[in-house]
Design goal:
It is built from 17 helices and 10 strands. By secondary structure, it is α+β, with helices and mostly antiparallel strands. The longest helix is centred in the middle third of the chain and has 43 residues, at 161-203. The strands form 2 sheets. Strands 1, 2, 3, 4, 5, 6, 7 and 8 form an 8-stranded antiparallel beta sheet that branches. It has a two-stranded antiparallel sheet with strand order 9-10. Helix 6 (210-225) packs across helix 15, helix 9 (269-291) runs antiparallel to helix 10 (297-319) and helix 15 packs antiparallel against helix 16 (450-462).
Length: 484
């Protein structure tokens, strides 16, 4: 073997070990072996069930190339039977070298003959090398066609070329297996992330598909930024890290109490039922007092009317997004009212805890409940701290657990300021707020029109200094919430 060939083999090993894209790896393998063998054409097959699937085909004379990053060639797979030379090489784990296929009767060469008839090509010499991994598992086959001499004429493959190709095929098989292992591990982890994200959404009807919507929108936003001059162009790995951060950003909600997360109105269902029952008791007491002569008909009708208005006030406050001053004044007056039960004891029309819940100005959560809800960010950080993220995913925990931080320091849980908040976190925050505003499945508000949601984002950036103004404007321009 020439020194030049030895150097090429070593170079092939370096090239293959550096490639991580499965399709590009297959292309490199075929390129390298054709260069080493100095041949005119080649095919790389990979085992797929009980057949060999065409992965890459290259023919320099015909100037044809298919497979690899261009997609698998649309050719029927070769059955793993003993009539096909490529199948035989894999079944017997041996290299087959043929000087002239037209003079060989041992194998079925009807395929190459038909190919020659259709294209005008002349298939002569062939070298077929099996690819097996270190455990002896069958991976695929390299089929090289028409070795060329120094003058470019077709000749037989050199006797020592089989050993060279076997060495390269062994390296190739191990590299393919390693890349497959990495892809399988990566897919397993991504599947786990998708399951965890779905579990959060499935846990409550009021958070359905939030992370998925954010990820879809975020993916399109990343692609848009790549077209903008001066903005960050994400690599595929960086994009995957960013999207994984989105899918995991609410994982802390797995431990948030459902009665808090699902609180659609200010009053809990049992509180709502207690007030309804209490007002009914007050109405019935008025009826009884009237029949007993302790209350006039006019007084009875007035009391019944008062309970009706009280219920209407409670229902309006309980279901509104923001409690106006006039409603709060009515609630304060209602709080002062008592009724007498059958034992002569006085009881309030609404209990102190009920009054406290109905006095919540905005949303449905009390301060204590809001703190419980906000705790999900810290829980997200603690949960993700137990996962060992690889180098390409090293920022997932940081980005996922900071999505409620604002540039002006008013966010939570760490009240970070602009200089502490990464570019990617600023993007996630915008995506999270936007999806929350336009979502139609939240218990405490109606879905907001897109234009109104965008106005709020812009106000949060321009007037309040909470969001990154440049990214907010790019988000609005991208219209990345629109699929397709």
């Amino acid at each position: 073997m020439r020194q030049e060939d030895m150097e090429k083999i070593l170079k092939v090993g370096v090239l293959l070990s550096a490639e991580r894209d499965p399709n590009r790896l297959l292309e490199r393998i075929l390129e390298c072996v054709m260069e080493l063998a100095h041949c005119d054409a080649g095919t790389l097959y990979l085992k797929d069930g009980d057949a060999l699937a065409f992965e890459i085909m290259r023919n320099d004379t015909l100037k044809t190339y298919s497979g690899g990053t261009k997609g698998r060639p649309e050719l029927p797979p070769v059955p793993l039977n003993r009539s096909n030379v490529c199948a035989m090489a894999l079944l017997d784990n041996r290299t087959i070298c043929i000087e002239d296929v037209k003079d060989n009767k041992d194998y079925d060469f009807s395929g190459p003959i038909r190919y020659d008839a259709m294209t005008g090509y002349n298939t002569r010499s062939m070298l077929v090398v099996p690819m097996r991994n270190r455990e002896g598992g069958r991976i695929g086959v390299l089929q090289l066609i028409n070795a060329l001499d120094e003058n470019g004429s077709v000749c037989a493959f050199a006797p020592d070329m089989a050993l060279v190709m076997e060495s390269v095929a062994s390296q190739a098989a191990i590299t393919i297996q390693n890349v497959r292992y990495m892809e399988e591990i990566k897919e397993l982890f991504q599947s786990f992330v998708r399951v965890m994200s779905s579990a959060i959404d499935e846990r409550t009807p009021y958070n359905a598909s939030h992370a998925r919507h954010m990820a879809e929108c975020g993916g399109r936003f990343v692609d848009y930024l790549g077209t903008c001059e001066g903005e960050k162009a994400f690599s595929q790995e960086e994009k995957e890290e960013f999207l994984m951060s989105i899918l995991l950003h609410d994982i802390g909600k797995l431990v948030t109490p459902l009665e808090v997360m699902n609180k659609a109105k200010r009053l809990f269902p049992n509180q709502h039922a207690d007030i309804a029952h209490r007002l009914e008791v007050i109405r019935l007491r008025a009826e009884i007092d009237c029949l007993a002569g302790r209350m006039t008909v006019e007084e009875k009708e007035k009391r019944i009317s008062e309970t009706r208005r009280a219920w209407e006030l409670i229902e309006e406050i309980n279901g509104t997004g923001f409690v106006q001053d006039t409603l709060l004044e009515g609630l304060k007056e209602l709080q002062k009212r008592d009724y007498i039960d059958e034992d002569g004891e006085a009881h309030p029309w609404i209990e102190p805890e009920e009054y406290r819940m109905l006095s919540i100005r905005k949303g449905t959560l009390s301060e204590e409940e809001r703190e419980i809800m906000e705790e999900h960010v810290s829980v997200t950080d603690r949960l993700l701290s137990q996962i060992h993220f690889s180098g390409s995913l090293s920022h997932v925990r940081e980005w996922a657990s900071a999505h409620h931080e604002f540039l002006n320091g008013t966010g939570y849980p760490k009240h970070k300021r602009a200089e502490e908040i990464p570019y990617e976190v600023r993007m996630i925050t915008i995506l999270d707020i936007f999806d929350s505003l336009v979502a139609d499945d939240r218990p405490y508000k109606r879905a907001m029109p897109v234009d109104r949601a965008l106005s709020i984002l812009k106000a949060m950036a321009e007037q309040e200094g909470k969001l990154d103004l440049g990214l907010t404007e790019l988000f609005i321009k991208s219209r990345c919430w629109e699929a397709g």
